[in-house]
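TA notes, week 10

Several of you asked for a full example with nothing omitted. So below is the full record: structure tokens for the whole chain, then the designed sequence directly under it. When grading your own attempts, check the secondary structure regions first.
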């Protein structure tokens, strides 16, 4: 069942690409941004404590959401477990955008335009994480 879940998640990723609105990286960027706005203007030890709290909250949320996603499919019958597991796993892949960005860079390299290569390397970063 795990192999079927993994294969379905990969197929979905290749077919659908990256969601722009709901994505784990974007959600974590949003959380860190919001926590940063709540923090004060502390310096020294206070800033370190605020940073440690931000990291702890981020880790807690990631573990809680990951645990939910890992355990939910186990409680569902066969085909639904595969669908739920693949839907939960799919956002962890970035196969399609990475292949697209890689082909853009490869084409630039083939046409020997080094000034474009540096600019195009930014295409490998497919998500804005802080908004």
């Amino acid at each position: 069942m795990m192999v079927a879940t993994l294969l379905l998640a990969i197929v979905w990723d290749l077919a659908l690409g990256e969601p722009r609105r709901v994505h784990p990286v974007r959600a974590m960027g949003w959380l860190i941004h919001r926590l940063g706005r709540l923090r004060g203007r502390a310096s020294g030890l206070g800033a370190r404590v605020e940073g440690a709290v931000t990291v702890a909250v981020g880790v807690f949320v990631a573990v809680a959401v990951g645990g939910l996603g890992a355990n939910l499919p186990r409680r569902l019958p066969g085909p639904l477990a595969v669908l739920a597991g693949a839907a939960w796993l799919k956002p962890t892949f970035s196969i399609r955008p990475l292949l697209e960005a890689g082909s853009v860079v490869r084409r630039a390299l083939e046409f020997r335009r080094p000034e474009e290569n540096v600019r195009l390397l930014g295409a490998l970063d497919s998500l804005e994480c802080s908004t």
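Residues 2-124 form one domain. Use that as a sanity check on your answer.
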